[in-house]
Amino acid sequence: MWNCDDEGDVIICIGSGKGGTGKTTISTSLALALSKHDIPVQLIDCDVEEPNANLFLKASIHTKQPVKVMVPKIDEELCTHCNKCAEFCRFNSLVIYPDKTLIFPEMCHSCYGCIRICPVDAIKPESREIGRIEVGDAGKIQFADGLLNIGEARATPIISELKSSISPTHTTILDAPPGTSCPFVETARKSDVCILVTEPTPFGLNDLKLAVEVTEILGVPRGVIINCCDVGDDRVERYCEDEGIELLMKIPHERSIAEAYSKGINLVEAMPQYMKLFLELNDKLRRMAGRQR
Amino acid sequence: MIILITAAENKLEAEVDPRFGRSKWFALYETDDDSAEFVSNEQNLNAPSGAGVQAGANAAKTGAKVVITGNCGPKAFRALDAAGIKVVIGASGTVREAAEKFKNGECKYATDANVEGHW
Q: Distance between CA atoms of A172 and A42, rounded to whole angstroms?
Protein backbone atom coordinates (compact mmCIF):
# COMPACT_ATOMS: atom_id res chain seq x y z
CA MET A 1 0.00 0.00 0.00
CA TRP A 2 1.24 3.43 -0.94
CA ASN A 3 0.77 6.36 1.40
CA CYS A 4 0.72 10.08 0.83
CA ASP A 5 4.16 10.56 2.40
CA ASP A 6 5.87 8.91 -0.55
CA GLU A 7 6.69 10.92 -3.62
CA GLY A 8 3.91 10.32 -6.13
CA ASP A 9 1.96 12.36 -8.62
CA VAL A 10 0.07 15.47 -7.50
CA ILE A 11 -2.76 15.15 -4.96
CA ILE A 12 -5.33 17.94 -5.42
CA CYS A 13 -7.87 18.50 -2.65
CA ILE A 14 -11.07 20.33 -3.55
CA GLY A 15 -12.79 21.84 -0.52
CA SER A 16 -14.97 24.82 0.23
CA GLY A 17 -16.00 25.43 3.80
CA LYS A 18 -19.54 26.30 2.78
CA GLY A 19 -21.58 23.48 1.25
CA GLY A 20 -23.14 23.60 -2.20
CA THR A 21 -20.59 25.93 -3.79
CA GLY A 22 -19.53 23.57 -6.57
CA LYS A 23 -16.81 21.23 -5.25
CA THR A 24 -18.14 18.26 -7.19
CA THR A 25 -18.62 20.31 -10.36
CA ILE A 26 -14.96 21.35 -10.19
CA SER A 27 -13.70 17.89 -9.19
CA THR A 28 -15.50 16.03 -11.94
CA SER A 29 -14.74 18.70 -14.57
CA LEU A 30 -11.04 18.57 -13.79
CA ALA A 31 -11.05 14.76 -13.86
CA LEU A 32 -12.89 14.65 -17.20
CA ALA A 33 -10.65 17.31 -18.76
CA LEU A 34 -7.49 15.46 -17.74
CA SER A 35 -8.73 12.06 -18.87
CA LYS A 36 -9.86 13.50 -22.19
CA HIS A 37 -6.25 14.60 -22.73
CA ASP A 38 -4.82 11.23 -21.71
CA ILE A 39 -3.44 12.42 -18.40
CA PRO A 40 -3.78 9.53 -15.91
CA VAL A 41 -6.26 10.71 -13.30
CA GLN A 42 -8.05 9.36 -10.27
CA LEU A 43 -11.04 10.91 -8.54
CA ILE A 44 -11.85 10.03 -4.95
CA ASP A 45 -15.12 11.31 -3.49
CA CYS A 46 -14.25 11.85 0.18
CA ASP A 47 -17.68 13.17 1.15
CA VAL A 48 -18.68 9.83 2.66
CA GLU A 49 -21.79 11.26 4.31
CA GLU A 50 -23.29 12.41 1.02
CA PRO A 51 -21.23 11.14 -1.92
CA ASN A 52 -22.41 12.56 -5.25
CA ALA A 53 -19.49 12.55 -7.69
CA ASN A 54 -20.62 9.27 -9.20
CA LEU A 55 -23.92 10.82 -10.25
CA PHE A 56 -21.81 12.61 -12.86
CA LEU A 57 -19.08 10.07 -13.60
CA LYS A 58 -21.33 6.98 -13.61
CA ALA A 59 -18.38 4.73 -12.85
CA SER A 60 -18.80 0.98 -12.89
CA ILE A 61 -17.87 -0.32 -9.44
CA HIS A 62 -15.75 -3.46 -9.36
CA THR A 63 -14.83 -3.66 -5.67
CA LYS A 64 -16.87 -3.02 -2.53
CA GLN A 65 -15.09 -3.31 0.78
CA PRO A 66 -16.40 -2.83 4.33
CA VAL A 67 -14.59 -0.38 6.62
CA LYS A 68 -14.19 -1.59 10.17
CA VAL A 69 -12.94 0.13 13.30
CA MET A 70 -11.77 -1.23 16.63
CA VAL A 71 -14.08 -0.85 19.61
CA PRO A 72 -13.55 -2.23 23.12
CA LYS A 73 -15.37 -5.25 24.56
CA ILE A 74 -15.35 -5.76 28.31
CA ASP A 75 -15.17 -9.21 29.89
CA GLU A 76 -17.58 -8.83 32.82
CA GLU A 77 -16.00 -11.84 34.55
CA LEU A 78 -12.64 -10.11 34.77
CA CYS A 79 -13.73 -6.47 35.20
CA THR A 80 -13.25 -5.10 38.72
CA HIS A 81 -15.22 -1.90 37.93
CA CYS A 82 -12.22 0.24 38.89
CA ASN A 83 -13.37 2.91 36.39
CA LYS A 84 -9.81 3.59 35.10
CA CYS A 85 -10.92 3.04 31.46
CA ALA A 86 -13.86 5.45 31.77
CA GLU A 87 -11.65 8.09 33.40
CA PHE A 88 -9.15 7.74 30.59
CA CYS A 89 -11.64 7.92 27.72
CA ARG A 90 -12.05 11.53 26.66
CA PHE A 91 -14.92 10.62 24.36
CA ASN A 92 -17.06 9.14 27.15
CA SER A 93 -17.41 5.81 25.35
CA LEU A 94 -17.47 3.82 28.58
CA VAL A 95 -19.61 4.07 31.70
CA ILE A 96 -18.62 1.86 34.63
CA TYR A 97 -21.14 1.40 37.44
CA PRO A 98 -20.31 -0.65 40.55
CA ASP A 99 -22.35 -3.57 39.22
CA LYS A 100 -22.28 -3.18 35.43
CA THR A 101 -20.46 -1.70 32.47
CA LEU A 102 -21.81 0.16 29.45
CA ILE A 103 -20.04 0.73 26.15
CA PHE A 104 -21.13 3.36 23.64
CA PRO A 105 -19.32 2.08 20.54
CA GLU A 106 -20.41 4.98 18.32
CA MET A 107 -18.48 7.39 20.60
CA CYS A 108 -15.24 5.38 20.44
CA HIS A 109 -12.29 6.80 18.47
CA SER A 110 -10.40 3.47 18.44
CA CYS A 111 -7.39 4.78 20.37
CA TYR A 112 -6.84 1.49 22.29
CA GLY A 113 -6.27 3.57 25.47
CA CYS A 114 -8.84 1.68 27.57
CA ILE A 115 -7.31 -1.67 26.56
CA ARG A 116 -3.84 -0.54 27.58
CA ILE A 117 -4.90 1.09 30.83
CA CYS A 118 -7.02 -1.81 32.17
CA PRO A 119 -5.07 -3.30 35.12
CA VAL A 120 -6.72 -6.73 34.84
CA ASP A 121 -6.75 -7.13 31.06
CA ALA A 122 -10.54 -7.26 30.95
CA ILE A 123 -10.89 -5.25 27.73
CA LYS A 124 -10.33 -6.82 24.33
CA PRO A 125 -10.54 -5.25 20.90
CA GLU A 126 -13.57 -6.02 18.79
CA SER A 127 -14.19 -4.96 15.20
CA ARG A 128 -17.21 -2.98 14.12
CA GLU A 129 -18.32 -2.08 10.61
CA ILE A 130 -19.09 1.62 10.13
CA GLY A 131 -19.41 1.86 6.35
CA ARG A 132 -17.82 0.81 3.08
CA ILE A 133 -15.70 1.98 0.20
CA GLU A 134 -16.29 1.33 -3.49
CA VAL A 135 -13.68 1.31 -6.24
CA GLY A 136 -14.31 1.38 -9.97
CA ASP A 137 -13.63 3.01 -13.31
CA ALA A 138 -15.35 5.75 -15.26
CA GLY A 139 -13.78 5.42 -18.68
CA LYS A 140 -10.11 6.13 -18.10
CA ILE A 141 -10.77 7.77 -14.73
CA GLN A 142 -9.98 5.64 -11.69
CA PHE A 143 -12.79 6.20 -9.24
CA ALA A 144 -13.43 5.55 -5.54
CA ASP A 145 -16.00 6.70 -3.04
CA GLY A 146 -17.19 5.69 0.41
CA LEU A 147 -20.37 5.60 2.43
CA LEU A 148 -20.73 6.04 6.16
CA ASN A 149 -23.55 3.98 7.66
CA ILE A 150 -26.54 5.99 8.85
CA GLY A 151 -26.26 6.93 12.52
CA GLU A 152 -22.47 6.69 12.62
CA ALA A 153 -20.60 9.74 13.88
CA ARG A 154 -17.07 9.30 12.51
CA ALA A 155 -16.36 9.74 8.83
CA THR A 156 -12.56 9.90 9.15
CA PRO A 157 -11.78 6.14 9.19
CA ILE A 158 -13.56 5.77 5.84
CA ILE A 159 -11.76 8.78 4.39
CA SER A 160 -8.36 7.46 5.46
CA GLU A 161 -9.25 4.06 3.96
CA LEU A 162 -10.15 5.84 0.71
CA LYS A 163 -6.87 7.76 0.76
CA SER A 164 -4.93 4.52 1.08
CA SER A 165 -6.11 3.78 -2.48
CA ILE A 166 -4.34 6.87 -3.88
CA SER A 167 -2.35 5.88 -6.94
CA PRO A 168 1.18 7.37 -7.13
CA THR A 169 1.11 7.24 -10.93
CA HIS A 170 -2.07 9.29 -11.30
CA THR A 171 -3.06 12.88 -10.65
CA THR A 172 -5.40 12.38 -7.70
CA ILE A 173 -8.42 14.62 -7.16
CA LEU A 174 -9.95 14.47 -3.69
CA ASP A 175 -13.53 15.79 -3.65
CA ALA A 176 -13.65 16.94 0.00
CA PRO A 177 -16.66 17.05 2.31
CA PRO A 178 -18.08 20.50 3.14
CA GLY A 179 -17.17 22.21 6.39
CA THR A 180 -13.81 22.57 8.08
CA SER A 181 -14.03 19.90 10.78
CA CYS A 182 -12.32 16.49 11.02
CA PRO A 183 -13.58 15.02 7.71
CA PHE A 184 -12.22 18.00 5.75
CA VAL A 185 -8.95 17.99 7.70
CA GLU A 186 -8.52 14.24 7.08
CA THR A 187 -9.10 14.80 3.34
CA ALA A 188 -6.86 17.85 2.97
CA ARG A 189 -3.89 16.71 5.03
CA LYS A 190 -0.88 15.64 2.98
CA SER A 191 -2.46 16.96 -0.20
CA ASP A 192 -0.05 18.83 -2.47
CA VAL A 193 -2.44 21.66 -3.26
CA CYS A 194 -5.97 22.66 -2.31
CA ILE A 195 -8.67 24.43 -4.34
CA LEU A 196 -11.26 26.21 -2.22
CA VAL A 197 -14.50 26.68 -4.14
CA THR A 198 -16.68 29.51 -2.88
CA GLU A 199 -19.47 31.83 -3.87
CA PRO A 200 -19.33 35.63 -3.57
CA THR A 201 -21.71 35.89 -0.61
CA PRO A 202 -21.13 36.71 3.07
CA PHE A 203 -21.67 33.02 3.90
CA GLY A 204 -19.23 31.91 1.23
CA LEU A 205 -16.63 34.38 2.48
CA ASN A 206 -17.05 33.47 6.14
CA ASP A 207 -16.57 29.77 5.49
CA LEU A 208 -13.78 30.39 2.98
CA LYS A 209 -11.79 32.17 5.69
CA LEU A 210 -12.18 29.16 7.98
CA ALA A 211 -11.05 26.80 5.21
CA VAL A 212 -8.05 29.00 4.42
CA GLU A 213 -7.06 28.81 8.11
CA VAL A 214 -7.17 25.01 7.97
CA THR A 215 -4.95 24.86 4.88
CA GLU A 216 -2.51 27.24 6.56
CA ILE A 217 -2.26 24.98 9.62
CA LEU A 218 -1.83 21.93 7.36
CA GLY A 219 0.77 23.72 5.25
CA VAL A 220 -1.08 22.98 1.99
CA PRO A 221 -0.84 25.69 -0.72
CA ARG A 222 -4.29 26.88 -1.74
CA GLY A 223 -6.10 28.88 -4.39
CA VAL A 224 -9.69 29.97 -4.81
CA ILE A 225 -12.37 29.36 -7.45
CA ILE A 226 -15.39 31.66 -7.30
CA ASN A 227 -18.54 30.00 -8.56
CA CYS A 228 -21.55 32.11 -9.60
CA CYS A 229 -19.05 35.00 -9.67
CA ASP A 230 -21.58 37.51 -11.00
CA VAL A 231 -23.95 37.35 -8.03
CA GLY A 232 -23.34 38.72 -4.52
CA ASP A 233 -20.54 41.21 -3.94
CA ASP A 234 -16.77 41.62 -4.41
CA ARG A 235 -15.70 40.90 -0.84
CA VAL A 236 -14.36 37.41 -1.65
CA GLU A 237 -12.17 38.85 -4.39
CA ARG A 238 -10.93 41.66 -2.15
CA TYR A 239 -10.20 39.14 0.61
CA CYS A 240 -8.14 36.99 -1.80
CA GLU A 241 -6.23 40.06 -2.98
CA ASP A 242 -5.52 41.24 0.56
CA GLU A 243 -4.36 37.79 1.66
CA GLY A 244 -2.35 37.09 -1.47
CA ILE A 245 -4.47 34.05 -2.34
CA GLU A 246 -4.43 33.16 -6.02
CA LEU A 247 -7.80 33.41 -7.77
CA LEU A 248 -7.70 30.35 -10.02
CA MET A 249 -10.98 30.60 -11.91
CA LYS A 250 -14.32 32.40 -11.99
CA ILE A 251 -17.45 30.65 -13.18
CA PRO A 252 -20.51 32.78 -13.97
CA HIS A 253 -24.03 32.06 -12.77
CA GLU A 254 -25.57 30.58 -15.91
CA ARG A 255 -28.84 28.80 -16.34
CA SER A 256 -27.41 26.41 -18.93
CA ILE A 257 -24.81 25.16 -16.40
CA ALA A 258 -27.50 24.56 -13.79
CA GLU A 259 -29.76 22.82 -16.30
CA ALA A 260 -26.98 20.45 -17.35
CA TYR A 261 -26.11 19.82 -13.68
CA SER A 262 -29.72 18.91 -12.91
CA LYS A 263 -29.49 16.18 -15.57
CA GLY A 264 -26.18 14.86 -14.25
CA ILE A 265 -24.25 16.41 -17.14
CA ASN A 266 -20.92 17.82 -16.14
CA LEU A 267 -19.76 21.38 -16.86
CA VAL A 268 -17.04 20.41 -19.36
CA GLU A 269 -19.44 18.10 -21.18
CA ALA A 270 -22.17 20.72 -21.36
CA MET A 271 -19.81 23.56 -22.26
CA PRO A 272 -16.71 22.19 -24.00
CA GLN A 273 -15.07 25.64 -23.95
CA TYR A 274 -14.33 24.93 -20.27
CA MET A 275 -12.04 22.01 -21.23
CA LYS A 276 -9.18 24.36 -21.98
CA LEU A 277 -9.76 26.34 -18.78
CA PHE A 278 -9.53 23.18 -16.69
CA LEU A 279 -6.31 22.12 -18.42
CA GLU A 280 -4.87 25.55 -17.65
CA LEU A 281 -6.12 25.15 -14.09
CA ASN A 282 -4.23 21.87 -13.87
CA ASP A 283 -1.02 23.59 -14.97
CA LYS A 284 -1.49 26.29 -12.33
CA LEU A 285 -2.12 23.65 -9.66
CA ARG A 286 0.99 21.68 -10.60
CA ARG A 287 3.02 24.87 -10.37
CA MET A 288 1.55 25.67 -6.94
CA ALA A 289 2.33 22.13 -5.80
CA GLY A 290 5.91 22.56 -6.96
CA ARG A 291 5.60 20.07 -9.86
CA GLN A 292 6.03 20.83 -13.54
CA ARG A 293 4.89 18.45 -16.14
CA MET B 1 -35.60 10.35 48.21
CA ILE B 2 -33.26 12.48 46.11
CA ILE B 3 -34.54 13.65 42.75
CA LEU B 4 -32.28 15.38 40.23
CA ILE B 5 -33.78 18.35 38.38
CA THR B 6 -31.84 20.06 35.60
CA ALA B 7 -31.59 23.78 36.35
CA ALA B 8 -30.55 26.89 34.42
CA GLU B 9 -29.23 28.51 37.62
CA ASN B 10 -28.27 27.29 41.07
CA LYS B 11 -31.47 28.29 42.84
CA LEU B 12 -34.94 26.78 43.32
CA GLU B 13 -36.59 29.66 41.45
CA ALA B 14 -34.47 28.97 38.37
CA GLU B 15 -36.09 27.56 35.23
CA VAL B 16 -35.77 23.85 34.57
CA ASP B 17 -32.99 23.50 31.97
CA PRO B 18 -34.65 21.83 28.96
CA ARG B 19 -31.45 19.89 28.17
CA PHE B 20 -30.14 17.04 30.27
CA GLY B 21 -26.55 16.40 29.10
CA ARG B 22 -25.76 20.06 28.64
CA SER B 23 -27.78 21.40 31.53
CA LYS B 24 -25.98 24.11 33.47
CA TRP B 25 -26.80 22.82 36.94
CA PHE B 26 -28.15 19.70 38.60
CA ALA B 27 -30.49 20.46 41.51
CA LEU B 28 -30.40 17.55 43.97
CA TYR B 29 -33.74 17.87 45.69
CA GLU B 30 -34.43 15.87 48.85
CA THR B 31 -38.17 15.19 48.85
CA ASP B 32 -38.21 14.27 52.55
CA ASP B 33 -37.30 17.74 53.82
CA ASP B 34 -37.47 19.93 50.67
CA SER B 35 -33.80 20.81 50.91
CA ALA B 36 -31.72 21.20 47.76
CA GLU B 37 -28.10 21.07 46.81
CA PHE B 38 -26.76 22.29 43.45
CA VAL B 39 -24.03 20.55 41.47
CA SER B 40 -22.43 22.25 38.47
CA ASN B 41 -22.58 20.44 35.12
CA GLU B 42 -20.36 23.07 33.45
CA GLN B 43 -17.81 20.45 32.39
CA ASN B 44 -20.38 18.67 30.24
CA LEU B 45 -21.95 21.89 29.03
CA ASN B 46 -18.78 22.52 27.03
CA ALA B 47 -17.83 18.92 26.20
CA PRO B 48 -17.24 18.36 22.47
CA SER B 49 -19.06 15.04 22.60
CA GLY B 50 -20.42 12.49 25.04
CA ALA B 51 -22.13 15.08 27.27
CA GLY B 52 -25.24 12.95 27.69
CA VAL B 53 -23.30 9.81 28.58
CA GLN B 54 -21.10 11.62 31.09
CA ALA B 55 -24.01 13.53 32.63
CA GLY B 56 -25.82 10.22 33.05
CA ALA B 57 -22.83 8.65 34.79
CA ASN B 58 -22.49 11.74 37.01
CA ALA B 59 -26.19 11.65 37.87
CA ALA B 60 -25.79 8.04 38.99
CA LYS B 61 -23.03 9.07 41.39
CA THR B 62 -25.27 11.61 43.13
CA GLY B 63 -27.55 8.89 44.47
CA ALA B 64 -30.61 10.39 42.76
CA LYS B 65 -33.37 7.90 41.98
CA VAL B 66 -35.21 10.11 39.49
CA VAL B 67 -34.09 12.66 36.89
CA ILE B 68 -36.53 15.42 35.93
CA THR B 69 -35.63 17.36 32.79
CA GLY B 70 -36.98 18.80 29.55
CA ASN B 71 -35.50 16.40 27.02
CA CYS B 72 -33.30 13.34 27.12
CA GLY B 73 -31.30 11.78 24.27
CA PRO B 74 -30.78 8.07 23.63
CA LYS B 75 -27.28 7.72 25.11
CA ALA B 76 -28.11 9.63 28.29
CA PHE B 77 -31.28 7.58 28.66
CA ARG B 78 -29.33 4.35 28.33
CA ALA B 79 -26.77 5.49 30.94
CA LEU B 80 -29.52 6.54 33.38
CA ASP B 81 -31.62 3.44 32.78
CA ALA B 82 -28.63 1.15 33.43
CA ALA B 83 -28.12 2.89 36.77
CA GLY B 84 -31.77 2.25 37.66
CA ILE B 85 -32.67 5.93 37.49
CA LYS B 86 -36.17 6.81 36.31
CA VAL B 87 -36.49 9.71 33.89
CA VAL B 88 -39.23 12.32 33.68
CA ILE B 89 -39.16 14.38 30.49
CA GLY B 90 -41.15 17.38 29.33
CA ALA B 91 -40.66 19.30 32.59
CA SER B 92 -40.86 23.11 32.54
CA GLY B 93 -41.38 25.99 34.92
CA THR B 94 -39.14 26.50 37.95
CA VAL B 95 -37.16 23.83 39.75
CA ARG B 96 -39.39 24.25 42.80
CA GLU B 97 -42.55 23.82 40.69
CA ALA B 98 -41.12 20.69 39.08
CA ALA B 99 -40.30 19.24 42.51
CA GLU B 100 -43.83 20.02 43.77
CA LYS B 101 -45.40 18.39 40.73
CA PHE B 102 -43.32 15.29 41.31
CA LYS B 103 -44.28 15.16 44.98
CA ASN B 104 -47.96 15.46 44.01
CA GLY B 105 -47.59 12.42 41.77
CA GLU B 106 -48.18 14.43 38.60
CA CYS B 107 -45.14 13.07 36.75
CA LYS B 108 -44.98 10.15 34.36
CA TYR B 109 -41.79 8.20 33.81
CA ALA B 110 -40.44 8.01 30.28
CA THR B 111 -39.89 4.62 28.70
CA ASP B 112 -37.46 5.89 26.08
CA ALA B 113 -35.48 8.91 24.94
CA ASN B 114 -37.61 11.66 23.40
CA VAL B 115 -34.97 13.34 21.22
CA GLU B 116 -32.05 12.30 19.03
CA GLY B 117 -28.51 13.06 20.18
CA HIS B 118 -27.22 16.58 19.39
CA TRP B 119 -30.77 17.87 18.89
A: 5
